[in-house]
Design a protein that fits this description.
Distance between the termini: 41 Å
Order of helices and strands: EEEEHEEEHHHHEHHHHHHHHHHHHHHHHH
Shape: globular
Low-confidence stretches: 2-32, 120-159
Number of strands: 8
Largest sheet: 4 strands, mixed
Helix content: 55-70%
Number of helices: 22
Structural class: mainly alpha
Mean pLDDT: 80
Length: 451
């Protein structure tokens, strides 16, 4: 896992992946990022799948993505993505607490709460419009690593307004979420425990509150109501061994890359699961630039779970970051053979092939990855290099244009899209894609002139 950060940007409309929020270009925005990692996203899917099934949502279509923020927050902005800050994931002390958060956000989807906010967005004077937001949907950057930066051009008040829910909606979502948990045979006590986690936040000034408190109104009455809902649904059920394992693994990897290596190595000793303990040690050693110890620890973890493609993917990352291209390529191939349909693993393999000088093979792998996840911004960067190295300059310009568009940089996107239009066969599917970006860039320019 590595991080790609975007510094503060001004005068750039930008989006979080899936966020139907497009704001005026005069906004000065601080950067935030998504953490994209195949292992972490798989673990979150394991935790979320029974809840999504109970909610009537398809676990293969609805994803849980991690926001690179240490504050406590979770939100939904469309019907296919739940966003959770890594700070909240690390703060929970049981899988049931995290599953309660996921259930609550899933309830906002199923209860139709997004429809009201989408309508508000359509009429918002400060937004460029839902059509533009959809056109540059999903500014998630990050491939097989947990690394992504997405500038969010949103004033704090506008963002809070878009993500906020009424107390009535929150109460409704709590009741629905508890029914999801009960149906999935997950302890509903997690809902009460999560509320108590935030109980002290309302005593703080709004500037010091975690975003969750500002966007999810929390009162003592709501906590008591949640306790009553839980009591009415019956007693707690025992924790799932699978859920306990995946929470430990997700938290282990997240903490390994977001906290100091010294902290990671010290805390790893208390890890219950042997393979997770070894993974945490490997990450700590890797970040301390001790490749030998890192590989030794990770190889021991792989010995415990030899068919775990995500451990092989992490091993490939360690190798490629130490410029050991051929070894990394072999390891990534093994990871892809074990996880052939994971777009982040495939993107990592493509990057390794590109680094090893196998541009044509890299391009084929990257095209497979993009077919599974078109939102991967870093993958587009790698694809542009692969197209250029294989002499396909028109396609290189096209994917560069699309990459800038996904990041909200429509001025830059338009420049590359016009170049692509001049190089690609007129009327071809690729040429039409370039024209779509050109049109979006021209509309963006017109909006700027009207301001």
């Amino acid at each position: 896992m590595t991080f790609e950060r975007f510094s503060r940007l001004a005068s750039i409309p930008a989006l979080v992946f899936g966020l139907f929020l497009c704001v005026a270009t005069s906004v000065h925005a601080a950067s935030i990022s998504l953490l994209r990692d195949a292992d972490i996203e798989h673990g979150l899917t394991q935790l979320a799948a029974p809840i999504f099934r109970s909610a009537g949502l398809n676990p293969n279509r609805v994803r849980v993505l991690v926001v690179n923020q240490s504050s406590l927050n979770a939100f939904v902005v469309d019907h296919q993505t739940v966003f959770i800050n890594y700070g909240l994931i690390l703060k929970v002390t049981s899988p049931e607490m995290l599953q309660a958060v996921i259930a609550h956000e899933a309830a906002h989807i199923t209860n139709g709460h997004l429809a009201r906010r989408t309508q508000n967005l359509r009429s918002a004077n400060s937004a460029a419009g839902l059509g533009a937001a959809l056109a540059i949907l999903a500014a998630a950057a990050g491939a097989g690593e947990a690394a992504a930066g997405v500038a969010v051009g949103a004033q704090n008040s506008a963002l809070r307004g878009f993500l906020s829910h009424t107390r009535a909606e929150e109460s409704s979502a709590d009741r629905t979420a508890i029914s999801f948990l009960k149906q999935a045979e997950i302890s509903t006590q997690g809902m009460v425990d999560v509320h108590k986690l935030f109980a002290g936040q309302e005593l703080l000034s709004s500037a010091n509150q975690d975003p969750y408190t500002r966007s999810h109104p929390l009162t003592r009455d709501r906590i008591r109501a949640a306790e009553a809902f839980v009591a009415a649904q019956g007693g707690a059920t025992s924790s799932s061994a699978n859920a306990n394992y995946w929470l430990a693994r997700v938290q282990g990897k997240l903490s390994g890359f977001t906290r100091a290596p010294k902290w990671t190595l010290r805390r790893a000793k208390a890890e219950t699961y042997a393979d997770v303990r070894l993974m945490r040690q490997a990450i700590g050693h890797h970040r301390n630039n001790n490749t030998k110890k890192a590989l030794r620890a990770l190889d021991s973890a792989i010995a415990l779970r030899p068919k775990d493609g995500f451990y092989h993917e992490l091993r490939g990352q360690i190798l490629i970051e130490n410029r050991r291209w051929n070894e990394a390529l072999t390891t990534y191939r093994r990871a892809a053979s074990l996880q052939p349909k994971d777009p982040l693993v495939l993107a990592s393999l493509g990057r390794a092939q590109l680094a090893a000088g196998q541009s044509k093979a890299a391009l084929k792998t990257m095209e497979r990855a993009r077919a599974l996840d078109f939102r991967n911004n870093t993958l587009l960067r790698d694809m542009a290099q692969a197209y250029a190295k294989t002499g396909q300059n028109g396609m290189a310009a096209l994917v560069t244009a699309e990459r800038y568009a996904l990041r909200g940089r429509l001025d830059d996107a338009g420049i590359h899209a016009k170049r692509a239009s001049g190089l690609l066969p007129r009327g071809s599917a690729s040429w039409r894609r370039a024209q779509d970006v050109v049109i979006a860039a021209e509309q963006h320019e017109k909006r700027k002139k009207r301001k």
